[in-house]
Design a protein that fits this description.
Blueprint (H helix, E strand, L loop, with lengths): L8 H13 L2 H17 L3 H17 L1 H22 L2 H11 L6 H14 L4 H19 L3 H18 L4 H11 L6 H9 L3 H16 L6 H7 L20 H26 L9 H23 L4 H35 L1 H6 L8 H19 L2 H19 L3 H18 L4 H10 L3 H29 L1
Helix pairs in contact: 1-2, 2-3, 2-15, 3-15, 4-14, 4-15, 5-13, 6-7, 6-8, 6-11, 7-8, 7-20, 8-11, 8-20, 8-21, 9-18, 10-19, 11-21, 13-14, 15-20, 17-18, 17-19, 17-21, 18-19, 19-21
């Protein structure tokens, strides 16, 4: 279809409706319907068929099936760890040892977890958020602050330390554009990935100094220690079970989760990490960790087999709404690509743009695309094939252009209320999704403005 500004409407509708009503599911459904109206108008029968087929094809797509199952697997894993009792023992162990006895230490612990678990963004969020949440509640730190810190370190770290599926995906896109020595150029681009760098450093600054701006101030003021009941659990841990054994189960399952992803990337990539199957690797790693958690919980005596199975099923059930949101989000993202949203935005770059403005414009355009479709990977796929040829045509180094496209995608994804990582950060931290979006946005905008200025300076020096 002919490119038009109307291709932006489904994403704009979904974003505005989600922010105003806080009904993310309804917002995504509305965006999907509007996208099909734009594609098939005025054929009403085709519109209805398009809504069904676009949703169904996304649901049954083989690669997406792995996403649904590893999303449910994450829920089952943390259901076993939390409801089975070992996770409670692990948190109480931290409290008993007084390792995290101040708000600053709690925030820094979350930041460090986000940095060292660089294998997969959603795994990073779940580990950091679920581990930190009970400690934040006890110390009187808002869950919105937790959601911000885990969200600001997940995708940013995954792209800054790209020994994972993120690196493999982007390296493939770069190679397909005919770049000489694509791995070297990709590594060089990391130094220019200004938004990711600024987001991680800003999160560290906030964790250390407890800097609150915008709506975050109100949530932090309301999260007082005297409003949190200390050392209480709904069903209480089994005090007869060794804290050491419970901690060992949690650490073993989480460590296996981190270790098995690169191992599976090597296996599926025939010994080449960056050629591995990222989705399959994460899927296998999660279910190995789930098996360790279930067997470990049985071994410690924290719970019997019926309770372990019940905990796994309940954990999967609790995260099912997230899987539905992911399904609808991916469907909407595919439809926006069919409408040519990215290509329309890219048309804003024409030959009349000054050289020093190219990098900031690519960054901003990529950010708008990421914000609109709620997917950093989808943005990379749209923007890298546009940014790299510009650099090659002008005889300029490709690394800064690659970084601007990737960095903008991360910024847009970080700020978007329909992004899967933003949604998962809300779920893992136990906060209202729109509250997380509102409190995180000022920090994301601050890092985004800094990145825009940095790209303008870099462009002027080329």
């Amino acid at each position: 279809m002919e490119l038009s500004w109307t291709s932006l409407l489904p994403s704009i509708l979904a974003i505005l409706f989600a922010i105003i009503t806080r009904k993310v599911l309804l917002a995504l459904i509305g965006g999907i319907i509007l996208a099909n109206v734009l594609l098939f108008w005025p054929r009403s029968a085709d519109i209805g068929e398009g809504v069904f087929l676009s949703s169904w094809s996304t649901l049954v797509d083989s690669s997406n099936m792995l996403v649904w199952f590893f999303t449910l697997g994450i829920g089952a894993l943390f259901g076993v760890l939390e409801k089975g009792g070992t996770f409670k023992q692990f948190v109480l162990k931290l409290e008993q040892k007084q390792w995290v006895e101040s708000k600053r230490r709690a925030r820094l612990m979350t930041w460090i977890l986000g940095v060292i678990v660089f294998i997969e963004s959603n795994v990073t969020i779940m580990i950091s958020g679920t581990t930190s949440r009970p400690i934040y509640d006890r110390l009187g730190i808002s869950r919105e602050k937790l959601a911000y810190i885990v969200d600001s370190t997940c995708a940013a770290i995954c792209i800054l330390i790209p020994l994972n599926a993120w690196g493999a995906f982007n390296l493939t896109l770069i190679s397909n554009q005919g770049v000489e020595q694509p791995l070297l150029v990709f590594i060089q681009s990391i130094a220019f990935n200004f938004y990711a760098i600024f987001a991680v450093l800003l999160a560290l600054f906030v964790a250390w100094f407890d800097w609150n701006i915008g709506p975050m101030k109100a949530f932090e003021n309301n999260a007082k220690p005297n409003r949190v009941t200390q050392h209480t659990w709904a069903d209480g841990p089994d005090e007869s079970v060794s804290f050491g054994k419970g901690t060992a189960v949690v650490l073993s399952s989480l460590i296996s989760l981190v270790v098995m992803v690169p191992v599976m990337l090597l296996i599926t990539g025939d010994g080449v990490l960056v050629e591995g199957d990222g989705t399959l690797s994460v899927f296998v790693a999660i279910y190995i960790a789930l098996g360790i958690a279930m067997l470990g919980t049985l071994f410690t005596g924290s719970a019997g087999l019926p309770k372990v199975i019940q905990s796994a099923l309940k954990g999967a059930w609790n995260i099912l709404p997230l899987a539905v949101i992911l399904w609808l989000s991916i469907t909407l993202g595919g439809l926006t690509r069919d409408l040519g949203t990215g290509e329309f935005l890219a048309a804003a770059l024409d030959g009349s743009v000054s050289l020093w403005m190219l990098l900031p414009l690519i960054f901003v355009l990529s950010a708008i695309t990421g914000f609109s479709i709620g997917s950093s990977w989808g943005t990379f796929a749209i923007m890298l094939p546009l940014a790299i040829p510009i650099a090659m045509t002008l005889g300029l180094p490709a690394a800064p252009f690659i970084a601007a496209a990737i960095s903008g995608g991360i910024f847009g994804d970080h700020a978007s209320p329909i992004s899967d990582t933003t949604i998962i950060a809300s779920m893992a931290s136990g906060t209202e999704h729109i509250d997380h979006v509102r409190t995180q946005l000022p920090y994301a905008l601050l890092a985004g403005v800094g990145a825009t200025i940095a790209y303008a300076i870099t462009g002027a020096m080329m």
